[in-house]
Write a structure and sequence with these properties.
By secondary structure, the protein is α/β, with parallel strands linked by helices. It folds into two domains: 6-244, Spore Coat Polysaccharide Biosynthesis Protein SpsA, Chain A; 253-407, P-loop containing nucleotide triphosphate hydrolases (Rossmann fold, 3-Layer(aba) Sandwich). The protein has helices spanning 35-45, 61-72, 87-99, 124-137, 179-196, 203-210, 230-244, 264-275, 282-290, 298-318, 332-343, 358-373, 384-393, and strands spanning 6-12, 29-30, 33-34, 51-56, 77-82, 111-116, 139-145, 152-153, 159-161, 169-178, 216-219, 253-257, 278-281, 323-328, 349-355, 404-407. A hairpin with a 5-residue loop joins strand 8 (152-153) and strand 9. Helix 3 (87-99) crosses helix 5 (179-196), helix 5 crosses helix 6 and helix 9 (282-290) crosses helix 10 (298-318). The longest helix is centred in the C-terminal third of the chain and has 21 residues, at 298-318. The chain is elongated, with a radius of gyration of 25 Å. It starts with 5 loop residues before the first strand and ends with a strand.
Length: 408
C-alpha cells in the first residue's frame, strides 16, 4: 500500500486573553523561543508529516512568515493563511485552502493532522501513533484517561452523578482524519451553523455529528498540555526544564531492518550511544550460547530467542529505557507482525532500514571474511553461494514499512 500524504494544520490565531498578557500566547517566549516554535519544530522533524498549513490572525501573517517561518527555517510550512473569529472557523479556512488546491503538492486523498499551536509538547511518538490509527480507523484523536474523579452537576452546582472514570478521556490534539472525511464534516457543520446555531467544540465532534465514522482515541501524553493560562506556562517551563536535563526523552523501540553484513551492528552502536538505549541482538545470544554452529535447530533457536527479546523489550521500555532490536527483519510479514506487536501495547516503534548498495555490500562481506580468516572476529564465512541465498531471502521494505532509511 502506497503511503498517503500527511498535512499538518497548526492553529495559531488565538488572542490569548486568559494569559493576562499584551502578547498573543502563541508568540510568548518559552525557553527563549516563541511558544508556536515547538509545535512547528515537531512537525518539521517528523517522519510522518509531509507539509504544514499554519493558521494565524490576518494581521499577523507578515510577522509570522518573517519572524517565525523564515527566521527558524521551517521548510515544511507550505502556507501561512488567515484564520477566523473562532477555532472552527480557522480549521474550516485551512481545510478549504487544502481542498481548493492551495498546497504545492495536493492533499485531497491523504490525511490532515489538526494541532493547537499552543500545545508545545507534541512528539514524534504521538504523531506516529495517530498516523498508525488513522490509516485503519479514518479518524482519531490524541487523548489521555482522566486522573481525577469527575462529577456531573446540576444548574445549582450540586453533584448529581459520578461517571465511571475509566470511560472518561481528556481530549488533546493532534486530531487526525482522512482529508475528504474532515472536509465533508466541516462543510456540513458550517451549513448547519448558519441555519441552526450548532455548537461544535472540537474537530472530532464535527465528524461524530455529521458523519457515521467513529473516532478512535489514541494515547497522547499528560505533558501534551495546552498553554492557556499563566499557570499552564509555569507547567510548560517545568516540563521543558526536565527535557533539557535529559530526563524526559520518551522510550521507544528501534527495529533494524537490513541484509546480513549491511552495517546494522555499526548503526546499532550509534543509536545506542545517541539514545542511551539497550541493544538486544539475536546473533550475540546465539554466538554466546552455541558458538558458530547451532546445528539443525538453528532456525528454531533463533525464533525462540526473538520471541524472548520481544517480551524483554516491553519490560525494558516500561522501565523508561529505549530498546534496539538488531536482527534484520528480512520479510514484510515479520515487519508487519513486529509493528502490530508494539502498537497493541501502545509502545512507539521505528523501523530503520539499512539500505546498502550491492557493491558496498560485497566489499563489506569480503572485509568480514578476511577478519574471520585472521581470527579477528567470531562469525561464519559468507561465500558467494551463501551471499546469493541471503540476497534472495531478503525482502526490501516498501516506503510505508519504514520510518528511517539509512543509505550505505
Amino acid at each position: 500500500m502506497s503511503r498517503k500524504r500527511c498535512t499538518a494544520v497548526v492553529l495559531a490565531a488565538g488572542t490569548g486573553s486568559r494569559m493576562q498578557s499584551g502578547v498573543a500566547k502563541q508568540f510568548m517566549e518559552l525557553g527563549g523561543r516563541p511558544l508556536i516554535w515547538y509545535a512547528l519544530h515537531a512537525v518539521e522533524e517528523s517522519s510522518v508529516v509531509d507539509d504544514c498549513v499554519l493558521v494565524t490572525g490576518a494581521e499577523d501573517i507578515s510577522y509570522v512568515q518573517k519572524e517565525i517561518v523564515e527566521k527558524y527555517g521551517f521548510r515544511k510550512v507550505a502556507a501561512v493563511v488567515a484564520g477566523g473569529a473562532e477555532r472552527y472557523d480557522s480549521v474550516y479556512l485551512a481545510l478549504r485552502f487544502i481542498a481548493d488546491g492551495g498546497l504545492t503538492v495536493p492533499n485531497r486523498d491523504g490525511y490532515v493532522f489538526i494541532h493547537d499551536g499552543a500545545r508545545p509538547f507534541l512528539t514524534e511518538e504521538i504523531l506516529r501513533r495517530c498516523y498508525d490509527e488513522v490509516r485503519v480507523c479514518r479518524a482519531c484523536v490524541a487523548a489521555m484517561l482522566v486522573k481525577d474523579t469527575v462529577k456531573v452537576a446540576d444548574h445549582d452546582g450540586f453533584a448529581v452523578r459520578t461517571p465511571d472514570r475509566s470511560t472518561l478521556w481528556q481530549i488533546q490534539t493532534p486530531q487526525v482524519f482522512e482529508t475528504r472525511l474532515i472536509t465533508e464534516a466541516y462543510e456540513k457543520m458550517m451549513a448547519r451553523q448558519k441555519a441552526a446555531g450548532v455548537r461544535i467544540t472540537d474537530d472530532a465532534m464535527a465528524v461524530e455529528t455529521f458523519t457515521d465514522v467513529p473516532v478512535k482515541l489514541v494515547r497522547g501524553s499528560y505533558e501534551n498540555i495546552k498553554v492557556t493560562t499563566p499557570e499552564d506556562m509555569a507547567a510548560a517551563e517545568a516540563f521543558l526544564k526536565d527535557r533539557s536535563d535529559g530526563r524526559r526523552e520518551a522510550a521507544k523501540v528501534f527495529l533494524l531492518c537490513g541484509k546480513i553484513c549491511s552495517g546494522k551492528s555499526t548503526y546499532a552502536e550509534k543509536l545506542r550511544s545517541e539514545h542511551h538505549a539497550v541493544l538486544l541482538s539475536v546473533d550475540e545470544i546465539m554466538l554466546a550460547v552455541f558458538g558458530l554452529y547451532a546445528g539443525e535447530k538453528h532456525d528454531e533457536y533463533t525464533e525462540r530467542i526473538q520471541r524472548y527479546l520481544f517480551e524483554k523489550s516491553v519490560e525494558i521500555i516500561k522501565s523508561g529505557h529505549s530498546v534496539i532490536l538488531d536482527w534484520g527483519f528480512w520479510t514484510g510479514q515479520k515487519r508487519a507482525a513486529a509493528r502490530a506487536y508494539y502498537q497493541s501495547r501502545h509502545i512507539a516503534c521505528e523501523f530503520h532500514y539499512i539500505d546498502v548498495d550491492d557493491a558496498i555490500w560485497k566489499e563489506q562481506i569480503e572485509r568480514r571474511n578476511r577478519m574471520v580468516a585472521a581470527g579477528e572476529t567470531e562469525a561464519y564465512l559468507i561465500d558467494d553461494n551463501l551471499a546469493a541465498k541471503f540476497a534472495g531471502l531478503f525482502e526490501p521494505p516498501a516506503d510505508d514499512e519504514i520510518d528511517v532509511r539509512v543509505r550505505r
